[in-house]
Amino acid sequence: MNTYGRTFRVHIFGESHGPMVGVTIDGCPAGISMKHADLLPDLERRKAGATGTTQRKETDEPEIVSGIFNEVTTGAPITILFRNADTRSADYESIRNTPRPGHADFVLHKKYDGYNDYRGGGYSSGRLTVALVAAGVIAKKVLNEITIQATLTEAGGNTNIDAAIEAAVTDQDSIGGIVSCVVRNIPVGWGEPFFDSAESVISHAVFAVPAIKGIEFGSGFGAAKMKGSVHNDAIMNESGTTQTNNAGGINGGITNGNELYFRVAVKPTSSTPRQQQTWNNVTASVEAFAIMGRHDLCIALRVPVVIEAATAIALADLKLMAGK
Amino acid sequence: MNTYGRTFRVHIFGESHGPMVGVTIDGCPAGISMKHADLLPDLERRKAGATGTTQRKETDEPEIVSGIFNEVTTGAPITILFRNADTRSADYESIRNTPRPGHADFVLHKKYDGYNDYRGGGYSSGRLTVALVAAGVIAKKVLNEITIQATLTEAGGNTNIDAAIEAAVTDQDSIGGIVSCVVRNIPVGWGEPFFDSAESVISHAVFAVPAIKGIEFGSGFGAAKMKGSVHNDAIMNESGTTQTNNAGGINGGITNGNELYFRVAVKPTSSTPRQQQTWNNVTASVEAFAIMGRHDLCIALRVPVVIEAATAIALADLKLMAGK
Amino acid sequence: MNTYGRTFRVHIFGESHGPMVGVTIDGCPAGISMKHADLLPDLERRKAGATGTTQRKETDEPEIVSGIFNEVTTGAPITILFRNADTRSADYESIRNTPRPGHADFVLHKKYDGYNDYRGGGYSSGRLTVALVAAGVIAKKVLNEITIQATLTEAGGNTNIDAAIEAAVTDQDSIGGIVSCVVRNIPVGWGEPFFDSAESVISHAVFAVPAIKGIEFGSGFGAAKMKGSVHNDAIMNESGTTQTNNAGGINGGITNGNELYFRVAVKPTSSTPRQQQTWNNVTASVEAFAIMGRHDLCIALRVPVVIEAATAIALADLKLMAGK
Amino acid sequence: MNTYGRTFRVHIFGESHGPMVGVTIDGCPAGISMKHADLLPDLERRKAGATGTTQRKETDEPEIVSGIFNEVTTGAPITILFRNADTRSADYESIRNTPRPGHADFVLHKKYDGYNDYRGGGYSSGRLTVALVAAGVIAKKVLNEITIQATLTEAGGNTNIDAAIEAAVTDQDSIGGIVSCVVRNIPVGWGEPFFDSAESVISHAVFAVPAIKGIEFGSGFGAAKMKGSVHNDAIMNESGTTQTNNAGGINGGITNGNELYFRVAVKPTSSTPRQQQTWNNVTASVEAFAIMGRHDLCIALRVPVVIEAATAIALADLKLMAGK
After folding, report:
1. Choosing among D3, D7, D26, which should be mutated to test the B contact, i.e. which has the most B CBs within 10 A?
2. Whole-model pTM above 0.95?
3. ipTM of this model?
């Protein structure tokens, strides 16, 4: 099931070392202005290039092939393609016998009986997030005046991100981080009491982003240590504005009109330059090995725009489900 | 959308102060032994009664009305009903004008244009979790040899739970907690690379449980501070057993055969005995008020079996989707 | 998958000889007036009693147990139950070894590995259509000013229905019929170009009604013999009113604002009083046998209100999907 | 909702006069042999070229861009693209003001508030069926030994198809037809008792094919005139082989192991060369006009392989849902 959404539905396809990756968005309303150039800023934010990111360089040039006519959405499915150019498949032959720790090599091989495209992670590659980001741009258009802002607020346990990256480069070991996300101007009433709580649908989308291992809304894990009289957010007016925001903008699974706020944990990039140990299927023994290929030392640097995209996709679906 | 699952589908219905609550499970395979008595142990674990839990006492007697014949599942939808008995609706008249902080009173009123059954939270009540627990028992049967064990490992910031409850009673203020959940004997290969990652589907179900505000898999938020060389779990044999389990049993969204492990944050019960402030729609001003009704001082005490149920439901669906 | 609908979702459960059958409707908007008495007229139309219908008499008293508060829908799932009273399970012991021709006995036994509740067809019984009819009443409320009218226009090949029934009684053999359905005041624009064409979603719901074996929209099978210049409906004004209605109100899968019109074929009741032949699993030979139990000689008499319900359910879902 | 299927899911996209059309298939099992050449025979059957078909010539060269690696399915989403080449968009300017009778011009304009790509029907074009046929080839692979055979058995009311086409050419008026479809080697037990009956899911897919206006299973509309003792198919052995096949291989919504058989009605091509009448939005009057562009005189000639594809897609989904 590689589809997300009930009304605003996103499908992604392609492999890291195939000819292209792409996304189809079904259920986007007609009449939304959508220019080619509108896609570029978020795609640019996701690109590698900064210190601590991979040397694989893709142009990430989006090709809109359906669903947009005269720079306006038509109501038909929107498909956007991205050609893969800078691939080096030979780098990946070895992983067939020595599954990389932290990566999905082992589980993909088992799940698909060895038929998966193993080159660069195949369909499971972070490369696919370029398609998520494109879908996120469309979703943000659907959300209109609602703003979503995700920021890397901590890397390698350090809130000074530059220093954290510098240390990782010196150390030649990958690091993770914390991304904080805030959504403003969201109306009251999105989300359902139980199975489609706002937390349920947002976390469902967010955990689709590779490397995410935790999410907390509002005070989150901190709330578990608080007293009710402190945690409860006093309601101050008829619009429901609260004095504090420990709930992160969600009560009983439903948005309450205050800022929706959550934090996600990004694990360290699995591809660390350090030597590691893994099982070798040929020699049938545990062996030391080193990762080849080009990788991000701190993938968390590129995650914020992807979290924004996942959040936008989830909220666009909630908006269309709410029908108001 | 009050339904969970693609193949093993769970629907819950009823209100806190209506005649009954219930659950329909569609997609459960035929031929699974299912006695009335099998439902009782988990229902018992969810019941109030201990210090720190509500004085509302429901018998929680399950009435199986379809889908089971001669104590075996038939393949038809399974419906189980629970009568409500000990309701005191008069307690709730006041909340129509003074929405309780931390509760869904305000958002439900807005979402449903004032037509929601406001008595005791209506459909949004924790009372509905009795239906979740019943569905969880069926799901556990589907999962067969897989075991799911959730435990309250911290309450009010204290790992000594008895002491934490005692302090809350003395303090007359509600507290939250941390529930840890471990799943054993789970096969390799459940979950999908992106939108239906194991983390996505489990978190979707878990955030359907009232009061949950955070979830982390494996090292979770701790992973954000670790280095890749430390976080990566070395693969030790051809079955994929890992030396450590920082991944919590999931790589790339897919179960890896090691223990699946996650922790959830439970916020303090919104209904604290302490005086609070909220908006009064009649007087159009912020006023102090005190919660009426009977409530849990530490709802986290009753949460573990509900987390087990949500997890079992999510995993039963993954199992049937995997088809093996 | 015993659920219909994407936004207006209907789940039915129960067995012919179990304690009750019921329906849960999820996704019904809040604020719709819904009295107990509103359910009765359509339930009455479905009841047996007339010449040619079964002698099993059920009161079909609906018990609304959730989702309606103060006679208005709340937005929460609506569940309605119907107790079974007049069951004679002993009548059905024999079918375990001699599957009845035309019935689902054989396929149910195989599909569910023998675990199905075989009494009176179990979950597959026409008894479940009482739940469909109840859901249809809710759906009609959602559709508001749109009217749906289904009529038995032919029975046993005869357009004089009374005469057809009389002949069947004399002949002591069951008969089928044709039900015509017309929907008025439907807006332009419901349905999707391909997979969720109006014909697709209506036929999906209609073929859920037992005994239906064909459906045609507008001129239907007659269209296959017509010329394009005759079949095309000339558009006469800016509202899209057409001179003829060979399309049955649907172009390219989308409603065009004219009357939506279709006809369905109802096969003869499988339970004919006549002697038949079937395989006997015990004697391992083909044997003559006669149906026991109480049955409708012409089930088509009771089908129109069920077709209206199926149509209303499909259209209510299209309406909520259209969002306007 | 431009997606079909619960487990084997098909998404189509593109427009008649856009750069390409395509299909993504999600949920196809890994390990199925799938060569580029395997797509060609069915694509060839769908092509124009014969007398009575359009002069628009597309190469229909499939470009497999994901989900297949080393000529085997990987378990990841399969995407196949088809470039559009022979488009003449100028032909379609006039339809913006004079909606063509029988076509979707009017309803698309209303549904999408005028934002639809109107060129050649845009997303609603029969051009999209090339994507359906490609998905059908994959579905047939999933179905393995099950064979699906659709045939044009009647055109313009004549069972001599060549004569029917000749008459249509002479007459310069479009015609429709009847397509019969038979499925062999299908196991017992596919389909669900109510909402996902085999008839429901097949008809849902079949009515996604443009120009289809009716479907009947087994004796279909003929059954409405038969007596029960004649219509019932006597069961002759323990495998469930029946003496007759009036049920068309489906009892109670579930396949019974006999040949699955159905017929569909194809309406005459809406684009007839004959002069017609329609509303002109500019002159605000009914006017005579003639269709421009290149069209099929008898689209039914090209329909059988598309019906096979729709059927294969529906059955592949039922197979994967059945899990056996």
Report:
1. D7
2. yes
3. 0.97
